[in-house]
Every structure is written in C-alpha cells, then in structure tokens.
Amino acid sequence: MQDQYALLVLTTGPDNDTAVSIADALVQEGLAACVQISAPVQSVYRWQGKVCIETEVQLFIKCHTSCYDALQQRLLSLHPYELPEIIALKLDRGLPGYLDWIKETTHP
C-alpha cells in the first residue's frame, strides 16, 4: 500500500486566466484542497532544441496522495501545454491540522 501523505504539486501556466481556470476546476472537483497562483515569473528553458524565455504563472497545488493520479490526469486534460510541468513533492512535515485538512478536503 502506498504511503498516505499530503503533496505539493507544482505546475506553470501561460497566464493568470488559465491558472485560475485550472485552479477552480481542481478545487471544485475535490482533487485539490487549495491552489495558490503566483505573480508572473520568468521561465528560461530548452524546448525542441531552442532556448525559450517566457512569462508564466506558478501554481502551487495542495492535495493528498489518494487523489494524485486523478489530479494529474485532470491537470493534463485542462492544461494548454504539450508537456506541462507537473512535479509532486511529499509534505512530510507541517502543521498537523493543516495536513489533516488537505486529507479531509480532497478525494479521488
């Protein structure tokens, strides 16, 4: 059985409207307890042999491992990028009540 813990999932989007749309869907559907959207950030990356410099917004998605697979699939369906950044970080420390809230609020 997979360990059960909270996750911080990171992704970027091309603009605030897209980020809000993604965040709203994930929270409304119970796949994320909370999504924070950052101010614009500069991303420098290599894609298809070229160095790209783009303005993006960062999404910080809090979910529970029990719904990660469904969250990833839904994020892929909502995301406009061909290959979106989706990185999940295990949250093994934090305010216990907050971590419990993430678990109680999200469901697959």
UniProtKB/TrEMBL annotation:
Pfam name, any one: CutA1
Gene3D superfamilies: 3.30.70.120
InterPro entries reported for this sequence: Ion_tolerance_CutA, N-reg_PII-like_a/b, N-reg_PII/ATP_PRibTrfase_C
Family statement drawn from the similarity comment of this UniProt entry: Belongs to the CutA family.
Record protein name field: Divalent-cation tolerance protein CutA
